[in-house]
Amino acid sequence: MSTVIEVSYFNTFLLKRAVGSLFETNSGTNNVSVKVNSEAVWPSLPWVPEGYPCFGVDMTRKNSAPAEYNWYVEESRIRGGYNNTQTELGPKAYAAVEIKDEQVLSSSIIYSGIFNSTTQINETNVFSIAEDIRKDVDPRYGSIQKIFASNTNLDILQENKCSRGLIDKDAIYSASGGGSLTTADVVIGQVTPYNGDYGISKNPESFAHFGTRRYFTDAYRGKVLRLTYDGLTEISNYGMKDFFRDKLGSLREQLSLYNVSVTLQAGSGYVITAEGEDVELLENGMTLQSFPNSPIIVDLTGYAGSGANSTVNITLNNQIDIPVDDEATFSSFRKDSVVGGFDNYADEYLLSIQPANPNEEVGEYKTLAYDETVRGWVSFYTYKPTIIQSFKRNFYTSNNIELYQHYFPTANRSYFYGEQYNSSIVFVFNPQPSIMKNFKTVSYEGSNGWQVDYFRSYFTGPDFYSNWEETRDTSASVKSFTEGLYIDDQGYNLRVGFNRKENVYMSNLINNSDVAYEEIIYGSDMAGIKGFTAEVKLSTDESTQLGGVKELFSAGSKFIRTNQIN
User: Fold this and answer.
1) Can you tell me the distance from the alpha carbon of 440 to that of 123, in angstroms, rounded to the nearest whole number?
2) Whether this model's pTM surpasses 0.85
């Protein structure tokens, strides 16, 4: 009795068909089909669960249209006959095939060959695959943002951790935990983390070094750090803890999108104007494509300006046909930066916090200096540097593409990047803090050319029960000794601001406060400024030896105690 046994395809081949666009030409009575733009494609028919392909029943018939199928099944035996000669399978190669996909090793260090200027060996572009040229650190602490070689050690700064790696040596530890250094055939040896969960976040531009000290910021934690042989120190705690917590904690990376109106004009080249700034896109030509019912998208990566609701003019080539007054979306990746550098001239660490998109939360940029001798932040500066660098005893900064040298002997003071600024100092008068006072005068010892921008008390605080709003006493500004000079009708020289007596500049305080709740005498009818403490800002004027040296040794105020009911 015969039995039918169903078997799977055995020793068969899948043949791919080259597909492409077809066009027909008529030549007399013959129709000729020509294939153009052909390319091989993989099988597109579905696969059955058993793992074998299924196909249409008419694919082997002569009358079937071959254009409907992308692949065929071919027998391995000649003509598919029983016991006919079978095609050879050919040589069999057994090899482990590695996946060649791209890998991002953000927490690894890869080093090249050696460089020796004496023997003129330069293998900095040689990366051997036969040797282990990679050193990994703990990926839990984020990517490596900065590496810095210090003598025979390598500082490795990740986003959330700081470590030290040995160079050209390794450490061997005994069973008791003791360690000893030994030379070995290694480039980067044992990696040891510093104490403290601090890193450099994503601001490697904040790194600066001088001698054995390295400075950088950790924006994730709102800290400014100093790294020396004795470990990490939070120098942001030296009187500026709250300031750096607020400023650094609000920094971020962001992708800004601007919806703007576009006017397209015929011409040559491509020019974009946003908020008065001209941005040229690829001077030799850039193709802007317009799709049906789609906006024109222009990438402005690296564009430093802000252009929300701006009018943008784009000049296009005559050969490009784009509708006029079309909508456009401009995208720009913006990253808040913290630029750091060391001033060798003044022996200070300079730090400039620069939000890419200033707002009320972040505020404008702030540039300030840290002095190691006093262990404190000594000054704010008015310039906004792009790069901070020292060379020997000279100090340089750049603003975009221009280089400036600071502390030049003949340069004007407070003159940065082609603009003259005023120097200022803010301080607090707080004598006998437990009593209520009336500040009547202000005085200082120093050079001519200082003025008082404001002299004000602190806020009293609101009182919601009596509808008493928060108020403070303020004074009118006090002009400098030079700018306060005026001549009366009789030709006498009089001064409305500071007057000089025995080389001390002094002036009365004129109250210009608004009326407070249940206040009877206020404004210029009342002498002095009332308050427990007073905040004062002195700055240089705009006419007295502009750009010259201004000195300020001390400041004071005469006050009297007011009546208080205990």
Assistant:
1) 75
2) no
- Residue 66 carries which DSSP code? G
- DSSP for 497-555, please give it: S-EEETTEEEEEPBB-PPP-TT-SS-GGGSBSEEESSEEEEEEE-SSTTTTS---EEEE
CB 433 within 8 A of CB 464: no
Predicted confidence at residue 181, as pLDDT, reads 56
pLDDT at 292: 44
DSSP per residue, 423-456 = -EEEEEE-SSTTS-EEE-EEEEEE-S-EEEEEEE
How does 7-24 read in b/e, with b if 16+ C-beta sit within 10 Å? Answer: eeeeebeeeeeebeeeee
Q: How far apart are CA 463 and CA 209, in angstroms?
A: 51
pLDDT reported for residue 495: 86
Position 333: which residue type?
Answer: F
- Whether residue 461 contacts residue 471, with contact meaning beta carbons closer than 8 Å, is answered with no
Instruction: Calculate the dihedral angle through the C-alpha atoms of 240, 244, 247, 248, rounding to the nearest 10 degrees.
Output: 170
Longest dimension (CA), the chain: 144
Spell out the residues 6+ positions from residue 32 whose beta carbon is closer than 8 angstroms to its own: 24, 25, 26
Written as six digits, the tokens of 338 are 């913290």
Beta pairing, strands 337-343 & 348-354: antiparallel
Angle at 247 between CA 241 and CA 252, to 5 degrees: 135
Nearest Cα residue to 543 out of 492, 490, 497, 487: 497
pLDDT at 298: 54
Alpha carbon distance 193, 204 (integer Å): 18
Instruction: Please report the pLDDT score of residue 52 as a whole number.
Output: 44
Cα–Cα nearest to 65, from 118, 22, 127, 26: 22
Mean pLDDT in order along the chain per 10 residues (566 residues): 58 56 43 42 46 45 47 68 74 64 85 85 84 87 92 90 85 57 70 91 93 93 92 93 89 61 48 45 40 49 44 46 52 79 94 80 84 93 92 89 88 87 90 87 93 88 65 88 86 86 89 74 74 91 88 91 63
Is residue 160 a contact partner of residue 220, using CB atoms and an 8 Å limit?
A: yes
Distance separating alpha carbons of residues 497 and 506, to the nearest angstrom: 8
